[in-house]
């Protein structure tokens, strides 16, 4: 039976090893709760690292651990200390984590760590492969496992793979600094669906794919060989009910047993009834801006001294990744700052900061959320920030103010919070002042909107939305057309070829018979291609036309001696059996002098672009410029041209990284139909990769074998993945 496999670095259970034996307790983390609906019953398994290195596991206990984990539907990938050092502390947390959070100066590029990261990803993949079969759905989580999707896909192409990144995806300018950037992208592209918290992360990822791989991206779809990879944003929610109900229970008079922490919080309130509690909760991580927050707090006390002895800041920092030097440095910095500020401002009855460096149980988090007047969360960069959502969910009477950094993913959905720039101390101080003085009605109005949204888009909905979307990605990319080089479709094509007597071929050149080069002037045919074309043209039954947008001079130079039939400049010129080129259509060219200066101005403003001048057309090529910039300029150019040409009989064609302006309504479709009308053919075949080839696909009769190279939207009936496969196709006709 098809099953669901969830993979994350950390398992949703925590191991406890004692003298009595080994137990696995379910973890209360957001991911584990969110995935409950997905990870239920016997048709799902969660694969991950147990959190202990091989060296830490008592000898002979391995089986016991496996058994304890199996009780929770979990399976471990055992890792040695060396692997954890290189993979987890090393590449994941000393390279990817800082880089993806824009801490470029902290990112280390160690080849050894990269190699271990790759090997450990392979280790995860091996466990997944061992426990999966075709038809399974696989969901991979987070930055520790970015190579996994492709590693699984390679061995098991028929599974459905989703990937979700829980941290930001940085802008191209940052991502490009990673020496293994392409490997990471290709690893991720093994997925069918890639999810991010926000649209910005999605946009950054698509831009990196476009710029670094050259793979075609259309809106949020990536055409990777024969598959569509869909990219989308799914902002992760929390288990709203859990937090809200725990808070309700906490507030109810029945709750007689108070924690020590709650007693301390209550006594603070009794001693300073007008006092305000500010709460800051994070993992002790430099991305969370804890040190900056402390400086900002001092700034606030200096700017608004009337709040001395009235406002208290509670800082709860969870120990995290303590083997990484930056985290150790941060720990000393925060310790020192807390000491300094308390030393400077404390009075006999008031310590401005209460600082806890530990993980606390769920009940204490509820104590803190329900007792704090203000939650103050100022990450410098944060993928989402769930604490912000948990605070709001726990405010059962809808009072409380959330001050949130605009650099947190959560800020996108939490507009009603007070959003601040964590670097702007002036703004922060004023915002704390605003929060302290915010009328209750305003607090409730803001929080009620926030709560409605958090309740609706909770973590279960997040997981279900992702799974629904994953299942709806067109299976292996097949949308409206069929992959040609396989099974029955292929056999049918070959047998039609065999039994037919008059065959007509239209073969596009650039991107079809040959790949794109950065310099289009040097895209001469290679020996292998010429041999294929010779042999295809050889049988009497075959009439082969090369059909291209290129100018006749270039084709004459490249193919003149071969006597192939050629249609060039999109159907302006034709040459058959080695004769001189003649015009297929009557053309005007007086418009060219008016349009050329416009194109020249675009060349001046868009480095890397150039004009190709053909006999009856002008083409502006932008393959060598930045892809986003090029697309933007192309749209601009088309708008300018459309208004310029008015009613003149001139057409604008958008090709693959080229905008071409031509006389009349010449196109490859018209040219093909003219040729077709001259003979009696029982087998017609047309192949091309470009939008300009769509004219052929549209105009040729329905029973034509129309073939698109690549997986973009098309009017063709079939597709092949890339131009290398075109050669296999031609070789197939020739039985070689
Ligand atoms: P990150 O995933 O980067 O650590 P989030 O804010 O998204 O940041 O998630 C942190 C999670 O850790 C929250 O679910 C929060 O409840 C929990 N948490 C934060 N501080 C503590 C703590 N001191 N003890 C226990 N859990 C904590
Ligand atoms: C972030 C990451 C998670 C990670 C968590 C705790 O939320 O996105 O993948 O599990 O931090 O970090 P740790 O290194 O302790 O797993």
UniProtKB/TrEMBL annotation:
Signal peptide: none annotated. It comes from the Bacteria. Residues 249-268 are annotated as: Disordered. This is Bifunctional alpha,alpha-trehalose-phosphate synthase (UDP-forming)/trehalose-phosphatase. Gene3D superfamilies: Glycogen Phosphorylase B, HAD superfamily/HAD-like, Trehalose-6-phosphate phosphatase related protein, domain 2. GO terms for biological process: trehalose biosynthetic process. InterPro entries: Glyco_trans_20 (IPR001830), HAD-like_sf (IPR036412), HAD-SF_hydro_IIB (IPR006379), HAD_sf (IPR023214), Trehalose_PPase (IPR003337). CDD domains: GT20_TPS, HAD_TPP. In the C-terminal section; belongs to the trehalose phosphatase family. One of its GO terms (molecular function) is trehalose-phosphatase activity. One of its GO terms (cellular component) is cytosol.
